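Reopening closed ticket. The problem is back. First fold of the pair:
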Amino acid sequence: MATTPSDDIDQPAVKVSPPKRTSAGLPGVTTAMRHAVREMGPVRSASGLLRMNQPGGFDCMSCAWPDPNAPDRSHAEFCENGAKALASEATRKRVRPELFAEHSIDDLAARDDHWLNRQGRLTTPMIREDGASHYSPISWEAAFERIARELHGLDGPDQAAFYTSGRTSNEAAFLYQLMVRGLGTNNLPDCSNMCHESSGEALGTTIGIGKGSVTLHDVETAGLIIIAGQNPGTNHPRMLTSLEKAKQQGAVIVAVNPLPEAGLTRYRNPQTVHGMVGRGTRIADVHLQVRLGGDLGVFQGLGKLLLEAEEAGRRTIGMTSVLDHAFLERHTAGLEEYLDGVRATPWSDIEEATGLTETALREVGELLLDSNRTIVAWAMGLTQHKHAVATIKEIVNLVLLQGNLGKPGAGLLPVRGHSNVQGDRTMGIFEKMPQPFLDRLEAEFSFASPREAGHDTVNTIRAMRDGRVRFFMGMGGNFLKAAPDTAVTEAALRSCAMTVQVSTKLNHSHLAPGRTAIILPTLGRSDLDAQRTGRQRVTVEDSMSMVHASSGHLPPPAPDLLSEIAIVCRLARAIFHDEQGRARPGSPQADWQAMEDDYRVIRRHIEAVVPGFVDYERRIDAPGGFRLPHGPHDVRTFETTSTKAHFTRTPLWWPTVPPGRLLLQTMRSHDQYNTTVYGPDDRYRGISGGRRVVMVNAADLLELGFTDGDVVDLVSEFTDGVERRAEGFLVVAYDTAKGCAASYFPETNVLVPLDSTADDSNTPTSKSIVIRLERAAT
């Protein structure tokens, strides 16, 4: 056992024990219930949990994994982390003005994320006046008037930026982007820019739509599932139930990840007797322990193996050849150039890039040959590298070779994180929406929408830093802790004339205020939302393009708390209407009051602007909602420049690390979701009582002169010449790939330079941080 002092409030020391080899089971149930009852009490817990992810209930506010068809849902259709998310949102604790009076902004900023989250729900609009050390209460009307006045005082609309978190509903996101474009800017950064932007960029250019191509039924009937750069046991636990169903149908599963993860080792389904008292289900049949950034080499290697098998005259199940020639000829372009690139890539380079042997890759190649229904799934382990877009294009290449697109049980599966991050993009939360969308938006609301591309997340931070953006508004999320280069981001926020945060809970973004800063508390997903026309419902879109209704029922934390929709509508009226209530010339011709009163009015506008939402209201009446069209999956059509799916030739590239250095990835613990920290433990990895740990291969520790239990500073080294430091981390010898290390975000986001981003997508490279270890000062 190794211990070191910890910054966490509830535990005095980090404790390390062997990692778990199974996930969920009874420990998952007891942990979930402990969090729920502690925060909500037994009655409120039962009321909330039994309505989560149920028809007529509310959608889980954590991950975007889809729900089973309504008849197939469990009465407890939630996971451990979903229960923690509900407990956090529906807690009985309240942050009232007295807390802000007692604690200065600097006092609160010194607290950690866990402590801030534990204070409870925000209830009152607050303002930090220029020069003040504390927040103080402000009325809703005065807050909206102050924000509108600040926006009207800018030299131009592009001096404002409007961030969106993935929790925001379709309806709120649609109105938010309408308000922003009505102001005259496309500065609409969102959390996608920091996670799956690389997926959207790669898929958009290769198959014509930046979304995954599979359904839940496809996952559960696949023959082979390759899961790369993803930890479902912590990040999308309900995915494990679908993987278990796939295993029961005979699927083979391959995990490609630098760390072994309990969720992909063995799953004990807490809703079955076998899961609760038996050994559970083995999930991954093969684990490829790839080096960080080596996934491009993995998928090029697998493509090379298929080509070799094709040229050797082998065949795939149900096919006369390995490659699906009919599909390739009819539906793809660029095949020969891609194959030439594969032939030219030597196995020695593939082995060096991946840290794997040719033999290990050939084992997976044989599984591909034995499958005629293959899915490749991935998450941020692939999307946050310099060559992330190229890596995902390589996945597309592999899937296309065998025609595993547009047929049952096969396809591409980027597993999205936050619960409606995909829906927000569908609704127009994007700094460079396609022109046809903007055309329809203009026609519906009779105004001139801006056409020049706006700022994404990284460019928003740069613009604030450089004084080109003076106003920042965040609709949900914790921008400061989600963004890279924490010190630079904090300084950028503080340099703004005004910052506005729409939030349910207190977080560090509130504590990096502009000269004037406003906090607008809002309803959560589980809260009852009643407007003038009665109880309202909103909609969300999951990872697989299913759109369904969500309706909270728990009493709100405060009687005058506004929904995100009401906040946008009232702010829009303050911005676009004069003192007599008349619409200003050139503003969107929208009845903001009617949309606040009745969310069905918003959905009628969405029908007119967003493809696939015809008969919106009736279709969300159906339990489970409806699926948006997906040309590649549904009918094998591709909205690309050639109207075909595109192969891509990409030179093999991988991160190189100087001697004496490691390549660090940031990751979540099991006790957090995104930047929200529920507690100081990471049960599956054997870490408890703290978060400032760095996991390093034992052989690397020996070579570097460190031992398990040392306390070190992490120092990142990039070509910009600036050394960034995260202090006081406990070294834990761990089974991670040689040359690689892992630690938790947001504590290590400080190590990621603002200018270190993925090619084409501009996503921060949080999985490719070159670091050295330095002994911490005693």
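Second fold of the pair, where the issue appears:
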Amino acid sequence: MRIPKWRHTLLASSLLLALSLTAQAASEVDFDLPAAPLEQSLGALAAQSNVQILFSSDIAAGKRTPALHGRYTTVAALKQLLDRSGLTVQQQDEHTYIVVPENAAVVPVTTGDPALPIEIAPLMVTGEKINRTLMQTQTSVVVNTAEDLREHGDNTIEHVFARTPGVYAVAGNENWGIRGVPVSGFDDQGPATLNGAVSVYVDGAQQPNRALTLSPMSMWDVEQVEVLLGPQSTTQGRNSLAGAVVIQTRNPTFEPSLSAQTRVGNYGESGAAVAGGGSLVDGVMAGRVAVEYEDGDGYIDNITTGGDANPHRNKNARGKLLILPSDDLDVLLTYAFHESHQGDNSILRQGDKVRYYKVASDTRAFDALKQNTGSAKVDYRLGDAWTLTSLTTATQSDYSALLDFDQSAEANEEARRSQETHMFSQEVRLAYEGDSLRGFAGVYYGRTSNAYHDELAFDGSLIGTIQGYTRIHNKALFGELNWSFAPDWTLITGLRYDHETNDTDVEEDFLSGPGRVEKTFDALLPKLGVDYNFADGQYLGFMVQKGYRGGGVNVRAGGGHADYDPEYTTNYELSYRGAWLDDSLRARANLYYTDWKDQQVSLLDNTGDYFQVYNAASSTIRGLEVFVEHDLTRRFTVNAGAAYTDGRYGDFETRDGDLSGESFVYAPKYKVSVGGRYRFDNGLAVTSDVVYQEGSPTAYEFDADGDVIHTRRSDDHVLVNLNAEYELVEGLAVSGYVKNLFDKEFVTNNRGGDIIDVGAPRTVGLVVRYDL
């Protein structure tokens, strides 16, 4: 249970109704309320009865109330409005009421002291398509609300990953992963791949590969970020072998809202953003718009060209329209635009010396992405227990790049790259919410295509061209049932049948020639678990589920373009959730073992010149994730998280040597985060995090017999981050953040050669924000 600061809670709740407390709550009032959205009905009820009703916009979203006509007490009227909604009302005093999910606990308040904390609603996890509280979710999940993102000064998803145990990331987000598994998998197909090991969704729309490894994914106007650790294939499908990230931006409400901020920082950082909306047709249509622009010089210098090596620019715009044509029908339409441009994120090593934040390329390298995404979510309530949901998404993404192919100042080889990706998906789910049985069944269709065209030039003259396309059609039937078969016991079952067709045509490859392959894959993905509520606020669970990633065709230049098969995992996971001291102390832990079969890996072929993809490895991952949060006082909260991840190859013979028993590359074994936040009486709030991440293998070197004689590793490092915010007047606040406070220098990718990756230096920024 979260206990946010009273004032922040009021600002976050889109319909806080602070009215005069002159009427006695026990008196009867004549009500004449039409059927309407829940938040609108609660507002009208509070106005007519002269009481204060507190609730979260999250729990009210998508709910409607019946008409209310007649003479009732406030409590009786509230119960009428909340009937069969899954919500209940709790009275704090004779003039103050809180709407919460059924069986939720609240912290008592005294209306005379606005600094006291209050729990409006438990934190909900939505990424598994059955809404559960965080304490009732077995999956190892880290949830960041809008308040968390603001208090930590998180501008991008990279900042969230950097402080999340169980997730590793490098500067620029070009390589990140969950439980030691890279977002793109170990097959290393590069930007042309349509397969991945981690799915990322924004407002229900799955993001393409380059949006995951290039785009900074701004956190402006984001409502919640859920990082689900471990396989999500039964629910999310083909690209969720290692986990999923589910991002939800703010939805429209019928109350007017406005937020604006401007930001400046070192290395030329600057930006501005605004978001707002409200009712367009009272009770029927509401809208919201959010826009953002930011740019900067970057912290890497190009000593050859004499300029900035990594300048960057990002533009984001999003519009949402909520339409409620009837009591039983909700329609949410979303359009999002993103454009980003950034330079080279690597640096130079000369001999054994790392030239921090220097590169010597003779090419002004860049990566650019332009993306348009549209989605339509329709919820139709068929009755008290049944809901039919349709989710339609479409994404069009253009990627272009100029790369220094030789990555030096001595030659002039350049690669020009362009890609166009189209993604379409249609999902229909029928959900049931009963007293002892909850679940859903659904059908899914997805179509993804990627056309690519690369050119290699030397001194301005074209050497060769590589171009082709990949088209994937994916169909699935899936479902999940949660059955409370006995007091305190819940059985969880899920199943997905996945079918996909991969059609890859490499039309031209000057290094190895063209090739076309069409492959079909099928997978049956079950999960089975049990959850036991063995004491008040104490849960123990066990889950077994399959993970899956489809096969494909090698699209790397010169790779021969052979096909490869799917890979599978079986994950065994024990979970614990607990709360004590009136829910002020909360703990979560997950212990897991993953058995990985037919693992897709990239290996040099017999010539030693080109990489092929093989189903060559079997592996295991053992791990433990623990998270603890304690509200020491109403103003002071501390938290700690730790992840132990031991991913090792089982049987893995490469051309150069034997990696059997060696650790996964890029996967740190230990990551620990300790932090706290304190809110002073004068409006100042301070948040700090200390993050330790152990170094990991980045490359193996072998002797003549094929034995590992040297392991290149990234550096162990400890980072300290600070964020402070001060409210100048109501709604207007200034904040400052520092990432990597002690300016720690560390290598994140210690690959061979002269070009490596390092962590970002100390960055500081100042933000001024206004909220209506």
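Update: turned out to be a display glitch only; the data is intact. The domain at 6-120 is CATH 3.55.50.30 (Phage tail protein beta-alpha-beta fold). Residues 101 and 685 are 29 Å apart (CA to CA). Please close again.
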